[in-house]
Amino acid sequence: MHKKKQQEGDEHREKALDDMMGGALEVKKEDILNMEIPQPEFVLSKPDTQWSEEEKKVYKEYEKKNKELSEEQEKYRKSLEIEMRKLQASIKDATEGFDETLTKLLEWKVKSEMVIYQEELKITNIVYSILIEEEIRNREVELSLKLEKFLAYKVRGPSSYTVMHAVILFMSLKLLDKKFRKDFLDVPVHIVEHLYKLFKRRPRVQKMRTQMDSSINIKDQSLCGWMAADGLSQMLKAMEELDAPENMPEDLDPLIWERFCLVRRAKVESEQQVKTMALTLAEMQAFLQKRIDENETYEQEIKNLTDELDRVHKEKNCFRKDIMVQVLMKQGQVELTPTDLTADYSDSVLHHRSVVEGLNHTIKLNAGSKHDRRSYLVYILTD
């Protein structure tokens, strides 16, 4: 029973909320636009001619409340429109301020990028200058090293000492040949002639080459010296057979024979020394000819390297003098007439545009006064 009464109380409360506040404990201000006052039930079920006095009063009350609600809704609608216009004005001001700030930021960005690009261009020009200068310096060093290398290959002929020593040996050999008869004046003439033939006689041994292949380097003189020494030892060993007593002519004093053998041995040793020296000179001459042939090529290379080095020096000096300078100028300060000819600014002076315009104005004034004076003189002379 208690629960039933409680449920009935809750239903009455919900019905009252529905009638008064649409089922809500709190009505928001914006909900007034959605509020509607329900018409009385008899309005829909009965024509107005059948209404009772009480129903007419209820309907008038309904119209009064509906009018008041409409007025409240209209007031609230106007207040919302006013608030909306204020918000629109505020939004417009904020948008214009934002656009102005954005424009300033864009201008600042463009100026900043311009400065950055200018500095990047300066850095690029500096790096380019450094690379070009380093390339020129490396080329100069490379050419200098090559030039020094080719200049080191200087042709040198046989040493004067070697040539003089060979000449002395050859003259001493001729002298021994001439002194032979003088050394044996105490011997009969026919025996001297026989001894001279024996003096000219040489044993049959393997002859050394007097000419070497031109490809043999002068540094192989130790090998040539060994070959010469080996040939001399073979020749002296063969001479011992010719110096034997059985080869001595008849009726010749043994002492004279021994003296003859000593003279002939000295002659043979001198001949071997002359042959060795001739071999050395031949090798040196072949090496010298090879160096002379190479020297012609080196001379041409040296000339080419010298010319190239001079060109690099000129290019280096021109690069150091022709310095790139980055000048920031306002638009309209430089006005050039495009022509096919290359302008020469070697004797030009850079002035601000205001200075040039001032000079042009002065020139025009002076030219005008000169023209006036000339016209006045012409007028006087004409009269």
UniProtKB/TrEMBL annotation:
GO cellular component, as recorded: axoneme
Subcellular location field: Cell projection, Cilium; Cytoplasm, Cytoskeleton
Gene Ontology terms describing biological process: sperm axoneme assembly
UniProt keyword annotations, A-Z: Cell projection, Coiled coil, Cytoplasm, Cytoskeleton, Repeat, WD repeat
Keyword flag Coiled coil: yes
Coiled-coil positions: 52-97, 288-322
Domain of life where this protein originates: Eukaryota
This protein's name: Uncharacterized protein
Lineage: Eukaryota, Metazoa, Chordata, Craniata, Vertebrata
